[in-house]
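Hello forum,

I keep getting stuck at the same step: I have a sequence, I want structure tokens, and every attempt I make locally crashes halfway through. Rather than fight my setup again tonight, could one of you with a working pipeline run this one for me? It's a single chain of 217 residues.
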Amino acid sequence: MKKAVVILSGGMDSPTVLYKAIKSGREVSVITYDYNQRHKKEIDFAIKTCEKLGVEHKIIDMGFMSEIASNSSLTSNMSVPEGHYEEESMKDTVVPNRNMIMLSIAIGYAVNIEADEVWYGAHGGDHAIYPDCRSEFVDAMKEVAKISNWEPVDIIVPYLDADKTSIVTDGLEMGVDFGDTWTCYNGREKACGKCGSCQERLEAFKLNEFIDPIEYE
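Reply #2:
Ran it on my machine without issues. Output:
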């Protein structure tokens, strides 16, 4: 049995990745990052998912990100862009080098617990906006993960070429409880329904002819 570290936020993509890793027969350990993100409540949803699945879960303090990446609307008081994902407006939500830092920590954790793989939820819908979700980045990190320690670690990105609609389809088939996920970039009591992340989520459920189980403002 292969052992895997799964990077889990509270959004829709990474819980589906987690279910997929478990379904594939991996023995999983889960890691979640607290980087002082505006939508910090996603961590509560990550905790719910791990408790439901009974998997080991660590929350890592990355509070320093709000100091070194203060020009992102996810780590500052900047307004979160509204409307569909478009490159120019959604660039404000980029947290520089976030995935490289998170993957580096996860790789170190994998080596420490003798895990073979690190799984994370980059997907095709993010390629235009987020450089660290593109295949070029993933391929480069795969090579680095093979040589950065005595023990090579593989990076698994099952939805690298999939869009959000396909991820929801797969998640529904596996029984992912999307009511225990938080996608909105605003961390208010209910999802705003207006930011790019909410818009993409709502569209994915609509195309799957499934009602989104969370509440919106």
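The chain has eight helices and five strands. If your local run keeps crashing, start a new thread with the error log.
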